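The records we work with from here on pair a chain with its fold. The integers have meaning only within a learned vocabulary of local backbone shapes. A complete example follows; check for yourself that the lines match position by position.

:::
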Amino acid sequence: MSLNPRLYSEPVGDLGKPCPVGFVGEVFILSRDGMELEFELSSTGTTVNCRGVLFLSNVRMVFIADKPTADFTALDMPLAYLRSEKINQPIFWCNNLTANVFSVESGGPTGDAPPWPVKFYFKEGGLGTFIPLFFDTLQVVRTPPLPASDQTIPSAPPGVEEVVRRAYVDPNDPTTVYLTQPTEDRERIQPGGGYPSLTSRAGAAMRAAATAMV
């Protein structure tokens, strides 16, 4: 994971909130408002508890705080660096997602730092849309890589739009599924050093995750 990734300076799309600056070849799958993040800020050792919006792409999750501070505006979590993820559905409390995430700056899973625990509370609505998209995207990201000759991401994964349009969306789940990219006409950047390599699996992740909703 990494703190404070680049965000577009102006709100993007119908969400009316900031959005991560996309990587070249990255496809945003969904966003989920009304989330609460809990994790320990490594720079100060203090625990962060804040409300915000969570984005899921074929490459990463990005949480953006509703009320940013000088120390914290957003958290970038590469899916390839995620471990021990679990959906918890307690009887007397809101649903939550727990996971451990390796640091980008420390070299990820092969680096010299242990992963950081993070916890996301779903403060509004159900999980019927979010769960299949999240876990099927992870499954594809974790499949063995393709041969080196096929290490590119298709800029427009074929059939994705059609699959998503036919998808069933849980009416009790406020997740926004992107039929078109919220950052389609915006600047794109290359991942920084320490970020996991983006391969053709990233394009496949969108297709497989969307298929899970059909």
